[in-house]
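name: query_chain
kind: protein
chains: 1
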Amino acid sequence: MDADELKAILLDSFYGTDRGLSVSSEARAEISELITQLEAKNPNPAPTEAVDKLSGQWKLLYTINSELTGLLGLGRLPGVEVGEISQSVNGSMLSITNTVTIGSPVSRTAFSAKAAFEIMSPKRIQVRFERAVIETPQLLTDKEFPSSISFLGQSVDLTSLKDVLQPVNAAVRSTAISISNYLQNKPNLDVAIPGNRGAQSWLLTTYLDDDLRVSRGDNGAVFVLAKEAYSFNGGLRDRVRNALAVA
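structure:
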């Protein structure tokens, strides 16, 4: 089985796992075996020397045994949505920016951790986190009062209530727009991360091609990422979208 076939099977196996949060022990073992097989076919045995391939915007597809598992778990809280988790790598500047988008029914924000890295070997880099950034929350002013909601598995019609509350909904939207305009002029919160051991980690890239990357980190962490401007053929591109879907 060649690398493209393995990639297709691996991407399909991510469907419904919520990027590794909701994966059974059996499925985890199967995915781990597929990752190991793909690593054996790594076309770039010295990833840190392939700067053009390593650099770019990477989107998280799957992770296990990482600090991101707890972050993904926030999505199980009522009204919280964990959006895209990405990593921007600049090989020429030796910098990394990890970003996660968090949303709620009324707002959206993003958290970023900016780091410098040092090349330690053809596969391994040492990462030192330097700054944390919280973007100014963006209020979602285009939200409409729903016509129905699901309650205990049943659809509840809210059409009549929607008409009654329309004046209130309009007033709330007007207020939200005013607050949103005010927040747009506020800077992001940008703080330095103290230079201690807790702000450092290492990353080993075990597979790298034009559009897929596998990295391993502290405590057995595994990360599978797709390049945002991925050049997958149509079938694999669809599989990337499905990999990010929740069953």
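note: The CA atoms of residues 145 and 240 lie 33 Å apart.
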